[in-house]
Amino acid sequence: QDPTAAHYMFQDDPFLMPRNAANSRLFSLSKESGRNAAKYIIKQFPQYFDKTFAEPNIPCLMPETLTPQIEGVNEEALKERIHLRRVKDSVDLFDQLVQAGTPVSLETTNSLLDLLCFYGDGESTPEKEEQKEDLEEPGVQASEQKAPKRQFQRGSQSSGSRWRENNNAARIFKIMPERNAHSYCTMIRGMVKHRAFAKAYDMYIDLLNERHKADVHTFNALITAVPYLKERFIERWELAKVFLNHMAQQEVQPNLLTFNAVLKTLRRCGGVGRSMSPLVIKEMEALDIEPSLATYDHLLFIFYRGADLCPSGIISEVLDDIQKRSFTPQDPDDGMDFNMSDNLHCLSLGEKCCDLRDIKLAYQLNKAMEKGDNWKFIDMDRLNAYWSKFFSLLCMMEQIDVVLKWYKEMSPSLFYPTPKNILDLLQALDAANHLEVIPSVWEDMKQLGFNRRQDLLEELLSLMSREQHPDEIQLAFAKCAEDIKAVHEQTGREQTPLEWTASALSHVALLFSRAGRTQDAWYVNMMERFQQINRIPTDQVMDEFLNCAKQTNCPDEAIKLVKLAASLGLPSSQRLKSRTEEEFVLSEKQK
Question: What highest taxon heads this organism's lineage (predicted)?
C-alpha cells in the first residue's frame, strides 16, 4: 500500500484528491449523492432508459423494469405492483378489487401488509429500497431487515414516518375476512418500526387471544420496544423476560438478533443491565450462537457508558475475542446502518482505549480491525475519526520514533490528520526533543490547509523559537517563519490576512535574527509591525536582534533598535544603548 496515495475511491479523478478530512468527507458524499441522483433519474423517467440491447444479454446488468406490465383490475396486477413496491398503486388496486367484490387471497393480502408496514403510507425511495428484501420470499421478514432506531428522549419526533391512526395497513387489516399469524406478526413489526410501541403490544395480546404463535422476528421487534413500554429498569427487564418465556412456551428458537435485542434493551436498564448482560452472553454460548459486532458494542456500552469509566476486564475480553475472528454483517447495528446517536463499534472502542490510556488495548483493537474484511464495517468518515483517536493515543503514550513511523505510514493513505492530531504531534516532538522534524510537519500543515490555524501557528512558532539550535536547523526554522509571515500578509480576494499577535511577531523576529537574516527581522517585523499593532517587543527579542546585528556587523540596525526602544519607553533602552556603544564601531554621526 502506498502511504502517500489517497483512498481508492478518489483515484478516478486526480483533481478531486482531498487535502484534508473535510475535503474527503465532502468528495465522498458528493460521489454518493451523484449515484443517488442517477438512481432517481432512472426511476422517475424510465421511458428514456428502455433500450436494453446488448450482446451478450446479461439480465443482472440490465436496468430494472419499474413500469407495471399487467393491465386491468385483477390479483396478478396487484402482485406485480406489490413486487415493484408501488405503495399507492397497490392500495388503490386492492380497494378496487374489494369494491368489485373480487376476493383477494390471504397470501397476496399479507404481501400488501408487508409492503405497507415497511414503508408506511409513503412511497418507496432508493434508500428504503436498499433495505427492502424480496417481499414474496416467505423466509425474509422485511421489517426485521431495518431495525427500529432508538431515540434517547421519549416522545421525540422521529425523522422517519410514524404510525398514523387508521392508516392503510390498519384499515386493510380490519377488513380482512381471514387473518393468520403472518398478518398479526407483520402488523406488530410495522408498528414497532414506525414507533407505535403500545399498539404493537396490544396487537401481540390479540395474537395470543387468537391462539396464534409469533415468529422469532416479531419477538425481536417486541423486545426492542420494551424500553418504550415500561419506565422503571426492573420492569423493563421483567417484560423482556416475559417475551423470552413466551418464546420458550411457543417453541420459537432465538437467533442472534434476539440476543442483540435483549442487550440493546439492557443498555437502557442501568445497573440491571450490568448484572444481567453476562447471563445473556452465557446463554448465547450455551446455544452456540456466535456474537456479532453489535453484540460487543451493546456490551461495552452497558459497562462503559459515558465518561464514567469503571475498572473492568470486559474490554480486554472483548478484544481478545474479536482479535480471533473476521466478521460478516449479521445485524443492522453491525456497521453502516448504525444509528447516528450511537457510537460505531470500532470508534467507541477506540475512544474507550484512549480514555483508558491503554496503548496495548489500542494495538489489539487495530489488529482486530485489520483482520479479514472487518475494516468494511466502518465508513470512511468514521474511519478517519477512528485513526485520529488512535494517533492521538500514540502521541500520548508511545516513543517518538514509533509515532513518526505510524504518522508516515498512515497519512494520507489511511487518514487525514486533524488540527488536534497536529497539535498532539508537536507536543510529542517537544517532549522527545525532536524539534528538527518541525519543518516537515509544517509542510504537511500547508498541504492539509492548516497554515491559517492561529493555535497551531502559535504552538509551532513557540517551539521553534524557544531555544537556540544548530545553524542548519535555524535556517530551516527561518524558512518556516518566512512562510508564516507570508500567510499573515496574504492579500488575495478569498482570504483576509491573519492578524499579527505580539507573541507571533516576537517568535518570527527571533527566528530571523538567529538565522542571521537581520533585514527580515528588522524591516518586515519589528520596526513596522510592532508599532503598527501597538505591541511591545520583549527584552529577549531586542537582545537577540542586537546579537544578530553584531554578527552581521550592522551598526545602523543596532542604532535603529535603540531608537525604537527609546520611542516605546522601554526600561531596556539604556542597556541597549550601552551595549551598542561598547560592541560596535560607530562613526561620529552615528554616535
Answer: Eukaryota
SS (H, E, C) 349-381: HHHHHHHHCCHHHHHHHHHHHCCCCHHHHCCHH
What does the domain layout of the chain look like in residue ranges?
67-124+164-178, 192-289
Assigned C-alpha cell, 313: 476486564
Read off the amino acid at residue 184: Y
Distance between CA atoms of residues 475 and 473, nearest Å: 5
d(CA 509, CA 501): 12
- 313 contacts: CB under 8 Å, gap ≥ 6: none
Q: Is residue 226's pLDDT more than 90?
A: yes
Alpha-carbon distance 590 to 560, whole Å?
10
Report in angstroms the alpha-carbon separations of 332 from 91, 188, 230, 300, 566. 29, 19, 24, 18, 73
Name residue 340's amino acid.
M
The number of CA neighbours under 13 Å toward the Cβ of 28 is 18
Q: Are 200 and 154 in contact (CB under 8 A)?
A: no
Contact between 228 and 149 under an 8 Å Cβ cutoff? The reply is no
What does the alpha-carbon distance between residue 182 and residue 60 come to, in Å, rounded to a whole number? Answer: 31
CA–CA gap between residue 510 and residue 566 (Å, rounded): 20
pLDDT for position 283: 93
Distance CA(301)–CA(299), nearest Å, equals 5
Predicted local distance difference test score (pLDDT) of residue 149: 37
CA distances from 415 to 389, 404, 456 (A): 11, 14, 19
pLDDT of 284 above 90: yes
Q: Between these two residues, 465 and 139, which has the higher pLDDT value?
A: 465
Contact 369, 411 (CB under 8 A): no
pLDDT digits (tens, 9 = 90+) for 373-427: 777 777 777 788 888 888 998 999 899 999 999 999 888 777 889 999 999 999 9
Nearest to 419, CA basis, from 396, 459, 441, 450: 450
What are the backbone dihedrals phi and psi of residue 47, each rounded to the nearest 5 degrees, phi first? Answer: -65, -20
In order of 136, 197, 233, the CA distances from 60 in angstroms are 19, 39, 50
Which DSSP string do the residues of 284-307 spell out, in sequence order?
A: HHHTT----HHHHHHHHHHHS-TT
Q: At what angle do helices 539-551 and 555-567 cross, to 10 degrees?
A: 160
Instruction: State the sign of the Cα–Cα–Cα–Cα dihedral 263, 152, 237, 143.
Output: negative
Burial (CB count within 10 angstroms: exposed 0-12, middle 13-18, buried 19+), residue 125: middle
- At residue 20, φ and ψ (nearest 5 deg) are -150, -175
DSSP letters for 454-498: HHHHHHHHHHHHSS---HHHHHHHHHHHHHHHHHHT---SS-PPP
pLDDT of residue 314: 79
Which residue, among 420, 428, 423, has the nearest Cα to 395 in the 3D structure?
A: 428
C-alpha cell at 553: 556587523
What region, left, alpha or beta, does residue 288 occupy, with left being phi > 0 and alpha being psi -120 to 50 degrees? left
Count of Cβ atoms closer than 10 Å to residue 77 Cβ: 19
